[in-house]
Design goal:
This is Diaminopimelate epimerase. Catalyzes the stereoinversion of LL-2,6-diaminopimelate (L,L-DAP) to meso-diaminopimelate (meso-DAP), a precursor of L-lysine and an essential component of the bacterial peptidoglycan. InterPro entries: DAP_epimerase_AS (IPR018510), DAP_epimerase_DapF (IPR001653). Pathway: Amino-acid biosynthesis; L-lysine biosynthesis via DAP pathway; DL-2,6-diaminopimelate from LL-2,6-diaminopimelate: step 1/1. By secondary structure, this protein is mostly beta strands. The chain folds into 2 domains: 134 residues, Diaminopimelate Epimerase, Chain A, domain 1 (Roll), CATH 3.10.310.10; 132 residues, Roll (Diaminopimelate Epimerase, Chain A, domain 1), CATH 3.10.310.10. The chain is 14% helix and 39% strand. It has 4 helices and 18 strands. It has an 18-stranded mixed β-sheet that branches. The longest helix has 13 residues. It is globular and about 50 Å long. The protein starts with 7 loop residues before the first strand and ends in a 19-residue tail after the last strand. The protein binds ligand LBFN2T5F. Ligand LBFN2T5F binds next to α2 and α4.
């Protein structure tokens, strides 16, 4: 990150992990200080000049009773967000590998509420992702009343979009074939569509049969990723509400398979999938990163505290 003659700052230890190719820089902020502005997160996220990741995950001490950790999530664009499903699985594996806990059931505080992570064998983790939110005001999605599909204009075309929050906002479109779906073009427009005032993750769902589906997701603040855990949960909720999917679905994303279970309205969504630890690293941050450059905060909570 240095090399430009700027003064050298603190060293940050981190672990690179991924859940089905949705990749993360994971930082233990219990054992070391963590204080990064959004522009530094964007530099670290850069795949050519930085570490490279879709999201930065930060492990902090809990701020609530009966909770083991606080889990903070930053997109590659530096914005702090409420939830990340693949990240939650990697978080569980990380805190056990680092011996920050020896529990197999871990309760973590996120900006979207408390979630429960259950560590299984061979890096598999099951996450209780909470009850999906379909009330438009709470997603947030601009609509007079709750509907299963909303007509939304994109590039002169009217699309049938479903909206759901898994703690973070999602739009879901049904497509015939994810391989040819206009993920980059429609995804980028819908991510910033005025009807999503906090922006949104946009999923393109192809139903194969009642127990199997395929999905590609254009993520808010990161672009298309190889997997999106909350996106998979949102897609299965929409597929079930539309009468196309059963309660338990194997969903194939570009990076592999997730298993999602939902027993219907009022029930939490359960997500099961693998985790992988890629390498441990240390990076020297520029000494003057707190003072340099114009502040360009992300759309959500700024990264520094
Ligand atoms: N990769 C994620 C979601 C990360 C946050 C998302 N981009 C947002 O802005 O809400 C997942 O696995 O859920």
């Amino acid at each position: 990150m240095s090399g430009s003659g700027r003064s050298q700052g603190p060293t940050l230890s981190f672990t690179k992990m991924h859940g089905l190719g949705n990749d993360f820089m994971v930082v233990d902020a219990i054992s070391q200080p963590f204080r990064l502005r959004p522009e530094m997160i964007r530099k670290l996220a850069d795949r050519h000049f930085g570490v490279g990741f879709d999201q930065l995950l930060v492990v902090e001490p809990p701020g609530l009773p009966d909770v083991d950790f606080r889990y903070r999530i930053f997109n590659a664009d530096g914005s702090e967000v409420e939830q990340c499903g693949n990240g939650a699985r990697c978080f569980a594996r990380f805190v056990r590998d680092q011996r920050l806990t020896n529990r197999r059931v871990i309760r973590v505080q996120t900006a979207a509420g408390v979630i429960e992570l259950r560590v299984g064998r061979e890096g598999w983790v099951t996450v209780n992702m909470g009850v999906p939110e379909l009330n438009p005001a709470a997603i947030p999605f601009a609509a007079e009343s709750r509907q299963l599909v909303y007509p939304v204009e994109v590039n002169g075309q009217t699309l049938e979009l479903s909206a759901v929050s898994m703690g973070n906002p999602h739009g879901v479109l049904l497509v015939d074939d994810v391989d040819t779906a206009p993920v980059e073009t429609q995804g980028a427009v819908l991510e910033r569509h005025p009807r999503f005032p906090s922006r949104a993750n946009i999923g393109f769902l192809q139903v194969i049969d009642r127990g199997r589906a395929r999905l590609r997701v254009f993520e808010r603040g990161a672009g298309e990723t190889l997997a999106c855990g909350t996106g998979a949960c949102a897609a299965v909720v929409v597929g079930q509400l539309r009468g196309l999917l059963d309660n338990r679905v194997r969903i194939t994303v570009p990076g592999g398979d997730l298993v999602i279970e939902w027993q219907g309205e009022g029930a939490p969504v359960m997500m099961e999938g693998p985790t992988a630890r890629v390498f441990d690293g240390q990076i020297r941050l520029p000494g003057d990163h707190r003072r340099r450059g114009r502040r360009q905060s992300g759309r959500h909570t700024p990264a520094d505290r």
